[in-house]
Amino acid sequence: MSQTKSLLPREVADAYVDELIALDPITGTYLGVKESSSRLPDLSPEGQEALAELSRGTLARLDEAERLPGADSDIERRCARLLRERLTAALAVHEADEGLRTVGNLGTPVHSVREVFTVMPTGTDEDWAAVAERLRAVPATLSGYRDSLALGLERKLYAGPRPTATLVEQLTEWADGDGSGRGWFEDFAAAGPESLRSELDEAGRAATAAVVELRDWMRDVYAPTVEGAPNTVGRERYARWSRYYNGTDLDLDEAYAYGWSEFHRILAEMRQEAERILPGAETPWVALAHLDEHGRHIEGVDEVRQWLQELMDQAIEALDGTHFELAERVREVESCIAPPGSAAAPYYTPPSEDFSRPGRTWLPTMGQTRFPVYDLVSTWYHEGVPGHHLQLAQWTHVAGDLSRYQATIGGVSANAEGWALYAERLMDELGFLTDPEQRLGYLDAQMMRAARVIVDIGMHLELEIPADSPFHPGERWTPELAQEFFGAHSSRPADFVESEMTRYLTIPGQAIGYKLGERAWLLGRDNARERHGDAFDLKAWHMAALSQGSLGLDDLVEELSRL
């Protein structure tokens, strides 16, 4: 009689990845799995429960794996700790039925359905045949998403009215954003080969019709039902989501106080830098508004894409061999323009597992053709190099030494966003931001991340604004006050501010991970430097830190301090 081989934690984690890809082909596409290209996931309540069952079964197998000889090695221990924390956090979200009210302006299942097409291979007729098949799957997938939301309505689990209204607007743009009578999916399909023209056009029209159907239901049924529901989530739901995005049970009141301390520190630095640009400016944002008109800028969409590419290429040349040791395939990263109808914030997509698709940064233009430089430089240090790209591409590069799970889907948002914010600060420490325009832009970006901690926690928990605040001291936060505060302490235009606030209402607890994750990375580095003294090697520490895979903030400081 044959016996089933016992699996160590890394093997359990990798088996989970294989099973997850079977249920979620979008994840498969991001990993570069060819067999996933023609399918989409089941977004219905039944599909969500299947994912939960996979998590429960994996946790049971992990219990067995952790009892095996060899399971206590550092590499097995890290993987087991990450897998247990991630699956437990995801199950807590699922069991609270959060998946029945996932509505907003980004990060929802319906956004994933559209965005996966932007990373699909399209170099051959075979690739485009897979595109056509996946387009034909859009109606059933969006129908499953609607079934989940409808069940949420039955159970009186409502999304906020503001995120709902924003999603309706986005779906309208996806259905016919430029008034041409064709939707986004049809435009995407139009780039395919003539040999598949009829098939692609038909599939594109079917996908657009499904978008219109979902939009109409959201507008005519869902939105009226949730009208009057709160846009914020309260302390209990916020704590659950915070755990999911940060990998730790935060002391939310301490985190809120930390956000305010960083606000005051950064504001003092901004005032000094603003004086160099516009002496006598009433606030730093007056100086930044001056730069919007009179500072250095790039004209043209393709021109800014190329400029951002050159910025990343230059950073790689300057940092490789001095502060990092980069494999050749990690050195490749592409600058791209985000498709219309995206949220306002730039973003990054990691490489496929075999690097056949490189890591890519994405700039939403929001209809603009003129781009001030001051708010792009540190942002691309964050999104590209040495930020998201170096970390996520390095994880992919060393996947064989970790586990497939650690290198890909096991990522903790606050770990990655914390590294990217650390990367911005590193470039300032290394002297890359001595230009007053660029340094004030960097500090403005830092202020945005501190403000996120304040308003995200503040408005969802309805906390009191402290007495030493320059803004409405003693009052309680509301989304309206949060938007006013954010707009007054940011150089971003009004449409960006509005999109950001909707984002915080959509994915509570995620935006705080930038600043709190940066704090964890800095503390880990300080501890390692103190431990090694004069022998501390920053380049070696960077590469060891980037090669250990993801960890929640619970574990990140401990592991970084050991390096």
Automatic annotation (TrEMBL):
InterPro entries with a match to the protein in the record: DUF885 (IPR010281)
Top-level taxon: Bacteria
PANTHER family per UniProt: DUF885 DOMAIN-CONTAINING PROTEIN, GLR0591 PROTEIN
Name of the protein described by the UniProt record: DUF885 domain-containing protein
